Amino acid sequence: MPPTAYFAGPSAAFLHGVEHAAAFGDPAHLVVPAGTRLNQRKHATVHRMVLGEDEVEIRRGLPVTRPLRTCWDLVLWLDLVPAVTIIDALLHAKLVSVDELGELARDRFGRHGAARAARAFGLVDGRAESPQESRLRVGLIRAGLPRPELQHPVAIGGRVLHPDLAWPEFKVAIEYDGEWHDAPDQFHLDRRRLNLLVNEGWIVLHVTSRRMRNDFAGVVREAKTALRSRGWHP
Question: What is the CA radius of gyration of the chain?
Answer without folding.
Answer: 20
